[in-house]
């Protein structure tokens, strides 16, 4: 039976769902995408393997569920509640995108290495592509909303929020890819310095304009 034809499975109770997603996340970061199997996910799951397969039968089902889980709890959402000032919030978005959240319960680079492997399969997998596209959309939408708020409050110049948000996301993403694929460990730091030197001064309104 093809995965797309798999029957609907019972929705796990919240506690079980959380445990399965955390197990999938740990295995994903530890093994990457290409080498990941449901057996390795089950080894991270404290409960029985049969319970895992009762709710999720395949690796794809688990990965799609994990992407949805991560989307709902994405740290970019928390930044909107943490910081009221749009300028400070934008800086936090940039720093978290390049260096990861402080005190994160995972290795930022292990996760993004595995995620990059997954992205390489997305062009042949509609389910992966849809979830990854939603994640990028969430981040760029939050960036654009922050920039738009800054324009409305006089903190930022009157720029195109969507275009600026997409540019920032692409710059951050490129820096992560360079570090992961080419070993350019200074790429995030250099990109952060370039954003601070060339992008943010152009975005920020002069004192006379406020």
UniProtKB/TrEMBL annotation:
Pfam family, any one: TetR_C_13
- Superkingdom classification of source: Archaea
Q: Where is the HTH tetR-type domain?
A: 14-74
DNA-binding annotation, residue ranges on this chain: 37-56
- Keywords linked to the UniProt accession: DNA-binding, Transcription, Transcription regulation
Q: Which GO terms describe its molecular function?
A: DNA-binding transcription factor activity; transcription cis-regulatory region binding
Which SUPFAM superfamilies does the UniProt entry name for this protein?
Answer: Homeodomain-like (SSF46689), Tetracyclin repressor-like, C-terminal domain (SSF48498)
Q: Which PANTHER family match?
A: HTH-TYPE TRANSCRIPTIONAL REGULATOR BETI, HTH-TYPE TRANSCRIPTIONAL REGULATOR RUTR
- What name is this protein filed under? Transcription regulator
- Organism, by scientific name, is Halococcus salifodinae DSM 8989
